[in-house]
Amino acid sequence: MVKAVRFSRFGGPEVLEIVDLPDPHPGPGQVRIAVRAAGINASDWKKRKGLMDEELPQTMGHEAAGVVNELGDGVADVAIGDRVFGFSAEGAAQAELAVLSHYAPIPPSLDFPGAAALPAAVETATRALDQLGAGSGSTLLINGASGSVGSAAVQLAVVRGARVIGTASPANHSYLRSLGAEPVAYGGGLAGRVRALAPDGVGAALDVAGSGVLPELIELAGGPGHVVTIADFGGAREHGVRFSSGDSGRAVHAIGGIGELIESGRFSLPVAQTFPLAEIAEAHRVSEDGHVRGKLVLVVGSPARGSGY
Question: Residue 50 carries which DSSP code?
Answer without folding.
Answer: T
